[in-house]
Amino acid sequence: MVLLCRFNLLTENAQDLAKLMTLENGKPLNESMIEVTYGSSFVEWFAEEAKRVYGDIIPATVADRKILVVKQVSPALAVGCTVVLKPSELTPLTALAAAELALRAGLPPGVLNMVFGDAPAVGKAILESNQVRKITFTGSTAVGKLLMRGSADTVKKISLELGGNAPCIIFDDADVDVAVRGTVCIYDEFSKKLAEAVAKLKVGNGFDEGVSIGPLINENGLSKVRGARALPMHVVGLKVLKF
After folding, report:
1. Could you report the per-residue pLDDT of 166-186, keeping only the tens digit for each?
2. SS3 117
3. Integer Cα distance of 91 and 99 in angstroms
């Protein structure tokens, strides 16, 4: 009942959470709204999935996207585990607001714990703790390797979702007009249409109407993009499109 109550509160406060998300990371407001509503569905799903603990089998649909922190937190809460959550130091507010709604839903204090501050220091404490039995992390491959090595001493279970620059192959029989809406490839026809599609995108403040792309999170994010452009194109599969 607590998880279902939490789902209802997330749904009721979806607009405020979306605005907070756009405020702290800059993404377009409509995308933040989609992320909040889709993320909330994980809470509802795992609230019912928890019935499996006492043997009640229910239909299940596998989720294939990582939206909000609720995807990692909800299954742990559903089976009665406590959670220590370390959100990104760049975007902590949305996670904190979601945790506050969990308390309002009736989650006992101490079940969902928020930790803020220096990521390496927090990570070290979690890795060395014998009370933490499992770690889940979404982020860079480099940090994932550190967590995997650090988990060995205390034999922690670990779930990692790493990297964000996966390749995508478009075959010659594909519908290029459909693929160009969200995919990149090297064919001339595709590149031309992609450039035309990108030219129509509006970059700006995430709260402004019609904005398709918000700003990068910080100067480091901008440097990563510039660094990718500076590498040999065959290394990163990058082609600069002009329009």
Report:
1. 667 777 787 777 776 654 444
2. coil
3. 14
The full length of the chain comes to 243
Q: 3-state class of 136 per DSSP?
A: strand
Six-digit token string for 238: 């990058």
Rg of the chain taking only CA atoms, in angstroms: 20
For each of the domains in the chain, give its residue range(s) and CATH number, in order of start.
2-117 (3.40.605.10), 176-236 (no CATH)
Catalytic residue flag (residue 196)? no
Where does the pLDDT of residue 10 fall: very low under 50, low under 70, confident under 90, or very high at 90 and above?
A: confident
Q: Of these residues, 89, 100, 161, 209, which one is catalytic?
A: 161
What DSSP letter does each residue of 146-186 carry, written as one string? Answer: HHHHHTTTTT-EEEEEE-S-------TTS-HHHHTTT----
CA atoms within 13 A on the CB side of 211: 18
| Residue 99: its H or E element | helix 93-104
Cβ(105)–Cβ(2) below 8 Å: yes
Confidence bin at 148 (pLDDT 50/70/90): very high
The pTM (predicted TM-score) of the whole model is 0.55
Burial of 77 (0-12, 13-18, 19+ CB in 10 A): buried
Q: The tokens 């790493």 sit on which residue?
A: 162
